[in-house]
Structure prediction request, 151 residues.
Amino acid sequence: MTTQLERRGVILAGLILLFTGIPFGATPAEKAPSIKIFIEPQDGFESYIAAAIFKKKVPAVVTQNRDDAEFVMTSKVTSNPESTGSKIARCIFAYCAGINGDQTATVQLINAKGEVTWAYNVKKGGHKNFQSSSEAIAKHLKNYLERPPKK
Prediction:
């Protein structure tokens, strides 16, 4: 047997759904059209980019088939670890900041005509910041894809 409080809760939930325009069993709203991107292999960095595209909800689909892709993304990652001698010398003088080196990642989004439609470069402290670099790339790619076209 349901209590009066439970019935009020069900009625309240129904009214909220009614007035917010969300019907019972509603499917998610239609998303913006996704583009298909093939990411060129680059020593495993392509996996980080694909994961970041998914995590940041970029309106794009990463495909493993280059022929199905509308765009190809190329990337280049360079890591510059700090040498041991340099680390010691820096820390002796109480300036240990930045002793883990740095990483630079550059990507280009190329259309079927071979034109670069978007490019981005990111530099992160630490020579093993693949996830951080790829998430920065995905964030800026999302901003690029979601911005309204210029008239």
Remarks:
- The first strand starts at residue 35 and ends at 39.
- The mean pLDDT is 79.
